[in-house]
Amino acid sequence: MADHPQEKKLELLTFRVAEQEYSLDIMSVREIRGWTRATPMPHAPSYMRGVINLRGTVLPVMDLALRLNLPSQEANARNVIIVVTLNGSLTGLLVDAVSDIVAMAVDDLHAPPDMATDPHMAVVRALTVINDRMIRVLDLAAVIPNRSDVAA
User: Fold this and answer.
1) Is 122 helix (H, G, I), strand (E, B) or coil?
2) Residue 76 within a domain
């Protein structure tokens, strides 16, 4: 039998940020929506674009490029907001484009090399290769700051 029942599977949503490919566990993704102009909030970190109204919910929107210390572009109609949930809170991640959903074995994930100077900035939890493309798997808990850390 080719399929091993004990082999753990994982589904990843892949997307592009600043000409690079990243992914998230699909289980943390609530929805994908087109770009909506965000209302800036005073004293917010520079990577926070602001907030949008998501069917009556105030949704904070983070520019993922800025959060990852990558060059950010002016948002346009081709950009996408990936709405993710972490510890019961919703956050929008502004990305350049969504690529696809890929299924893989957890064993196909590789630990990233330890290259972060600050261990708190280790936002990539794994690497994988899909069709000769290196895909970074983000650690959502490291990307999205704890709400108490950014509360005014």
Assistant:
1) coil
2) yes
C-beta atoms surrounding 135 within 10 Å: 21
In whole angstroms, give the CA distance from residue 82 to residue 98.
Answer: 9
52 closest CA partner among 110, 94, 1: 94
Residue 137 CB coordination number (10 Å):
22
pTM for this entry: 0.87
Q: How far is CA 22 from each of CA 4, 41, 147, rounded to the nearest angstrom?
A: 27, 27, 24
* Owning domain of residue 78: 9-147
pLDDT tens across 1-28, in order? 455 556 689 999 999 999 999 999 999 9
CA 89 – CA 106 distance, rounded (Å) = 26
